[in-house]
Structures are given as structure tokens and as C-alpha cells.
Amino acid sequence: MGPVAERESCSTIVKIGQASCGSRAGQGELPNKLWEKVKNHPCYSEDAHHYYARMHVAVAPACNIQCNYCNRKYDCANESRPGVVSEKLTPEQALRKVIAVATTIPQMTVLGIAGPGDPLANPAKTFKTFELVTKAAPDIKLCLSTNGLALPDYVDTIVKAKIDHVTITVNMIDPQIGAKIYPWIFFNHKRYTGVEAARILTQRQLLGLEMLSDHGILCKINSVMIPGINDDHLVEVNKAVTSRGAFLHNIMPLISAPDHGTAFGLKGQRGPTAQELKALQDACEGQISMMRHCRQCRADAVGLLGEDRSAQFSMDQVMKMDVRYDLEKRKAYQKRMEDKRVSKVAIGQHGLTEVREEMSAITLLVAVATKGSGLINEHFGHAKELLVYELSTSGAKLIGPRRVQGYCQGGYGEEEKLSAIMRDIRDCHAVFVAKIGGSPKTNLIKEGIEPVDQFAYELIEKSMMAWFRAYLGRVKRGEVHHAQRGNDACRLVDRISAA
Description:
Elements: H1 10-13, E1 15-16, E2 19-20, H2 32-38, E3 53-56, E4 65-66, H3 91-104, E5 108-113, H4 123-136, E6 141-146, H5 151-160, E7 165-169, H6 175-178, E8 184-187, E9 190-193, H7 194-214, E10 218-225, H8 234-243, E11 248-253, H9 263-266, H10 274-284, E12 289-290, E13 302-303, H11 315-320, H12 327-356, E14 364-368, E15 385-392, E16 395-403, E17 408-409, E18 412-413, H13 415-424, E19 430-432, H14 438-446, E20 450-452, H15 460-476
Parallel strand pairs: 3-5, 5-6, 6-7, 7-10, 10-11, 11-12, 14-19, 19-20
Antiparallel strand pairs: 1-2, 3-13, 4-8, 8-9, 14-15, 15-16, 17-18
């Protein structure tokens, strides 16, 4: 496929100050039509993911391609990654589950179909599910994730189904690289392998993206970063999808543990480090916004990003629930939550104004332990993930979540897990927590990472910017010697008070 003229993507529609359109944009920074599509979509809006929930229904078991990083597993409750589900559903079962979840979790605003195979390799089940949900719950946004092979054939159907959000997984635009990722595809009743398979796949993906963009459908591109195979090449992928109208680019780390049974995992292909992932995301951020808050969800995920409540909604449990879809009650709940969200944003902006008065080129990373709601509300030892932010006088920028192993185990801490956590955040200057024990606090300080617990249960961005302003003051007064913490994990020479 040859080059195409650049389309009016989100980044060409609006760019105000430092905030370009995309996952970090807020109300007033996007045209109203776009804002309505993204404001309560937890994947398309970075801020919304603290407040709004999504769910996936596993109605699409078949797949038309094979990826070396994928192994679809059913009846699996112990793994949290794409392609894994505990049970497969019929469209009618999916509807029942959607109503149960939407009634129990009124901030659930998005229904996605993401597998465990490919939704467009299961078109009858996929579109029947969307049809049933649209009739029963018209306020819920519809979202579809696909590998893109069959996408051009279903664009008109997607438009008619009023699906406003489509995610396409694009890992390459060079068939030579694609041949290392995809062993085969099944297209037009025939199996293709090697470079030929990859060439067909990339042509179909880019064509489908162009067609969706022409219809005004928001497209998010997922790319899996595979060190030594497509890591450098993803910069070219970024350029290609941006020119074809993509709204958002999500570069995710390869998950390749051997016990997952994937081809890459079994042959020892490593995933990227957090620092390598950040460097690539930074290199791609420009005309298109990067999604940095992705959790690489299961195909039956339920709840806020970063939590999984799917175990509460097995079909056995759902069938016992006496639920009634109350649209007005849901709207009222979301209105109250949106009012709180707007208030929190205003508080955060006030803190940012104070920091902008400081004249400093310092940027640094910090980690935050949170359960959600935009608050510092998690104990250090209980955290399963930490959100990493980059702080500067321009504000706080989310770098992304980092999965960590819980340090506290039954009332005591495991030193090996503490060491692993400190390696995971070795490029951070501080970690914000609701509470932290004496031993981990001492060890973090020794590593030059400041444990910050004085902002427990307060707003994340307000707290970070207050701490950052104080940090800049300490630097000016000579109480702190600032040193960048990079991939070499150089220590911050910081005279932190033991108190």
C-alpha cells in the first residue's frame, strides 16, 4: 500500500498549549463532539480511567491469525493478560452480564469485545451482542478491538452498529519484521505464512484504519513492543498510523513469561524494561498522543482499569441476580461523579499554577500507590502496581503503570519482593503512599528514593505538585543536590531527613 494524504486526525483538529488532543486532553481542549466520545471512556481519556469502568464480554473465541506473543486460555482465573478468559459467552449471556454489571457498577460506561480471539473472526456473535446491548442499554459506549485482517470488510457494519471506538493492533508495517511476529494468517479461505502473510495483514490493517477514519470513528492503535524485533520499527509504525488518522497510540510491553505458553515465552524472548518502554513512547509522542495508562486487560475484564472484578460476575452469579436497568439512576450517579471530577481537576489546576511560578528545568519521576479515584490511597506493601508520573513546572505527566509484587505477605514483608520493587522504580525520585512500614522506608531512602506518606488519601496531582514545589525549594536552598536518575540507576544524592 502506497502513502496516503495525511488525514484530519485528532492531533490536527486541536492543539492548545501543552495539551494536544488525545488521552491527556480535558474539556475545552477538544471539540464538543470529540469530548463527548472520550470524556467517560477509560481507555481514551487518561483522567477518565480514575473514575469510569469498562467491561469486556468474551463472545469471540475464534481467531484468524496466530501471534507469537499470544496463547488464548479459557477457564483461567489466574492470569491477567489479553486472550485469557474464565468463560465464553453467547450474545444473550453477554447481555445479561452487561445489565448485571451496569446495575452494580453504575460508572461502567463502555462495553468492549476484545476476544479471546478476534471479534471480526466471529462477526455474527460480535454484532448480535452489540445489537442486543444497544437496545437494552443505549447509554453504554460500544468498543471493538481487532487485529485488522478482516476490518475492511466490516467497516460499514461497524458504522451501522454505532460503534464509535475501534482498537487495531498494529505491530509492524514491514512484512519482513511481521514474519517474525506472525506464523500464519487465514484470509479468504486460505492459510498464508511468512512474509506473504505479514504483507497481506499490514495492507488490510492500514486500509481498515483509513476507512474508519474517513467515517469519523475514533481509532486507537495497540502495538506490542518486542525488543530486538520491532522496538526501533515502532517509530515508523507510529508515523504510518498517525498519517492515516489514528486518534491514539498505545505501545505495550511484551508479556512473555514461559508459563504462559506463548511461542515467544517458550523460546525466551524477553519483554522490555520500564525504562525502554518509556524511551520508545517518548520517541513516538508528537503529532499523536500516547496512551500510557493501559493495563493490557483480559478479554473478560470488569471494573476500573487496574482492577479486575470479573470473578464477581460469573454467569452462575449473574443468573442469580435480580437486576433492572435503570437509565435515569445511572445518569444521576454519573452526574454526581462528574461534578466531583471537575472539582478535583480545578484543585489540581490551582496547584499547577503555583508550581509554574518556579523557574526550573528540573524534571523527575515519582511513583504513586493508588486504588483509584485519583487518590493516594494504597499501602506500599499492598500495592500490585504503581503509577509513575513525570513532574516538571509544566505539570504532572503520567508515564504509565508498573506492575509490582505485593511486599506484605500475611503481616510480614518479603525482602526479595522489596528488592524487586526498588528495581522497578529505580529511576524514580520518590514514591507516594498512604502508609509504609519502617523497613521498606529505610531501604528506599538508602536507594535514594524518598518515601512520601504525608499526603495519604489526598488527590494525586495536587499532592505531587505540592511536593515538587517543596522539592525545588530544597534544591534552591542547597538542601538537595538534584541528580537525574536514568537507566544506570544513579542514586539521588539527597540529604533526606531520617525523620
